[in-house]
Design a protein that fits this description.
Number of helices: 2
Protein name: ADP-ribose pyrophosphatase YjhB (NUDIX family)
Helix content: 10-25%
Bound molecules: zinc ion
GO molecular function: hydrolase activity
CATH architecture of the largest domain: Alpha-Beta Complex
Shape: elongated
Number of strands: 12
Distance between the termini: 52 Å
CATH superfamily of the largest domain: Nucleoside Triphosphate Pyrophosphohydrolase
Number of domains: 2
Order of helices and strands: EEEEEEEHEEEHEE
Cofactor: Mg(2+)
Largest sheet: 9 strands, mixed
Structural class: mainly beta
Radius of gyration: 19 Å
CATH topology of the largest domain: Nucleoside Triphosphate Pyrophosphohydrolase
Organism: Litorivivens lipolytica
Oligomer: single chain
Keywords: Hydrolase, Magnesium
């Protein structure tokens, strides 16, 4: 930030408070620098298949990914993921259909990654504005080297296994750009 978002006057070195997250301009306006963004992803299974979308927008246009997008102000997590699912794949599910699957950090791009899951009994879907193609696929159908975000592969493969086993846990992921981790946090007794 170089200028006050409220009144537009130039900020000085002394405007920055703490570690630079907040600024106080000479006119007394307090503003906050943009912090980490919250990315919500919809892991939707129909039987043993998972829902994928072929990205129409950059980054990674033309590559397949799990439907996801940024949470907007005023939304709950479930509302955000239901909206993204609708916008990208034309599948309309109520917010209550989603349950937590994973939380994670993508520290190299300052994003919080929250995956929620839902089960559907129909493969009905269609391309939303941001998708080139959408569909439900078996794990064996996926070319794992060609997906949009290979660092998410462990999370996606785990979602496939859980859909087959019908045994659903909660996971934590750390995606640092150098070493990725994806670990089980909790699972009910089988
Ligand atoms: Zn100001």
């Amino acid at each position: 930030m170089k200028f006050c978002p409220e009144c537009g006057i130039a900020l000085t070195e002394t405007s920055f408070q703490g570690r630079g997250e907040a600024v106080l301009c000479g006119n007394g306006h307090l503003s906050y620098a943009p912090g980490p963004k919250i990315l919500v992803a919809a892991f939707v299974n129909c039987g043993d298949k998972l829902l994928w979308m072929k990205r129409g927008n950059q980054p990674r246009a033309g590559h397949w990914a799990i439907p996801a997008g940024f949470m907007e102000s005023g939304e709950t997590l479930r509302e955000a993921v239901a909206r993204e699912l609708w916008e990208e794949t034309c599948i309309r599910l109520p917010a209550e259909a989603f349950t937590p699957y994973m939380i994670g950090s993508i520290s190299f791009i300052s994003e919080v990654y929250i995956g929620l899951r839902a089960t559907v009994d129909s493969e009905d879907c269609a391309c939303g504005e941001e998708a080139m193609d959408v569909g439900f696929f078996l794990e064996d159908d996926i070319d794992w080297d060609e997906v949009a975000y290979p660092s998410a592969n462990a999370a996606v493969k785990t979602a496939y296994r859980e859909a087959r086993d019908k045994h659903f846990g909660v996971y934590h992921g750390n995606f640092t750009g150098q070493s990725d981790q994806f670990d089980l946090v909790w699972q009910p007794e089988p």
